[in-house]
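Posting this for the archive.
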Amino acid sequence: MLFLLNDVVFDLDEACPVTPGDARRFEKLGFDYVMELGCELFAEDPELHRNDPQRARRLAWLLHDREPGLNAALFAAPARDCPPELVEPRFCALPDAVLAELHGKARRGGLTPVAADLAVWNRLAA
């Protein structure tokens, strides 16, 4: 299963990013808690998806595990070490064909923040 986190496409099927023990610990966490966790992580490092892909992949797995239809998330932080309340989270369910196209573009080195925004988030449209 592919998951777009900001402008990086993760394949969540490659290997489970959490151990079975961790999965049991996480099962009580609700979606809102995982969203707040994502805001905190991206407040510390707005480039988490690039600087710590393992942690970002675990976050993507948790988001999808809490909301199985969800396959794309954006955490837009204005600056490093900003308050988590300033991080703007967005979520969506993309068609498989769109994710496959983005994944292919990423493998070719063409998935930039601007390309992901134009294809999915439309934050720069105005």
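Residues 2-121 form one domain. The beta strands are 2-5, 8-11, 72-76, 88-92.
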